[in-house]
Amino acid sequence: MANPFGSNEMAGGYATSRPAVHPRILDQVITHLGRREPFQRALDLGCGAGLSTTAVLRFAHQCIGVDPVEAMLKWASTTASSAHFVAGAAEAIPLCDRAVDLITAAGSLNYTNLDLFFPEALRVLMPHGVLVVYDFSPGTSFRNATGLEEWFSNFADRYPLPPDEARTLNPEILAELDSGFRLHGQRYFEIEMTMTPDFYLDYMMTETNVAAARRRGVLRSEIRSWCTETLAPVWRGKERGVLFRGYFACLTPA
Asked: Which among 180, 201, 208, 213 is placed 20 to 30 Å from 35, CA to CA?
C-alpha cells in the first residue's frame, strides 16, 4: 500500500498548512513532568515535515528528527533548521546507545511494530529519560458553533479515507503493554485553535483522504473547489475556535 504521507504535495502541505497543535501539547507535557531544565538531546520519531520537531526544540538543547519518508525530511530541514534529521524507522533507530534523554512520538507508533520499537527505545534512551507518546484527532468541531462535524462527514464520504492499518493506542493500552516501560503520567486533552476559513481549507487539503483521492486521479483543483463551496456557509467568513482532542502518555524505563 502506498504511504499516504509520501508525496511531495503532502509533505509541503504538512510543512505550511497544519495548525500548531504540537507546542500546545508539549507545554502540557512539560508542566505535567514538572521539568525546569531543558533536556540535553531529544529524538522526535516520525517527525514528518518538522512541525513536531520545532515544538520539541523549545525544551531540548539538541533535537534529532527521524522519519522514513524522504519527501517529509526535505521540508523538515527548513521547518526546523536548527535540528538534525535522518531517514530511518522506529524499529531500527539510527542512533547509538543512550544517545537521548527524551523521545517524542506524535501519532507515529500507531504504524510501528511495537515489539521491535520498545527495545530500540530502551537502547537509545538514557536511564533517566522519558518517552512521550501523544496523538490527536483532526479538528472537526467548533467550540461555539455547529455544522463542522456534518461537513467533515460529507467530506469523508465524498473523498473516502484510505484503508487504515494503524493500531489504536491510548494511555491505558500503553500501560498494559509488556514494553519495558512504566506509565509515569498521562492526560486526555481538548485544545482550541483559532483558525480562519482559508487556513482551515488549506489544512483540510493535507488530510490523507485528499491524498488518497489524488492517487485515484482526482484533480486537486476539483477537491479544493468542492471544499471552498461547501465550507463557506459553515464558516460564514469568520475566525472560529476549532477543537483538537487527544492524549499524551509519559513513560519511563521500568
From this structure: 180
Residue 145, amino acid: A
Strand partners of residue 201: none
Residue 224 lies inside a defined structural domain of this protein = no
The tally of domains found in the chain comes to: 1
- Locate 185 and state its grid cell: 503520567
With a CB cutoff of 8 Å and minimum separation 6, the contacts of 3 are: 68, 69
Tell me whether residue 186 is in a domain: yes
Question: Does 234 reside within a domain?
Answer: no
189's grid cell: 486533552
> What domain range is 65 assigned to?
8-137+164-194+243-253
Output the nine-digit C-alpha cell for 79: 521547518
CATH of residue 39's domain is: 3.40.50.150
Q: What is the pLDDT of residues 169-206, one digit of tens each?
A: 999 999 999 999 999 999 999 999 999 999 999 999 99
Cell of residue 120, nine digits: 530500540
pLDDT digits (tens, 9 = 90+) for 101-139: 999 999 999 999 999 999 999 999 999 999 999 999 999
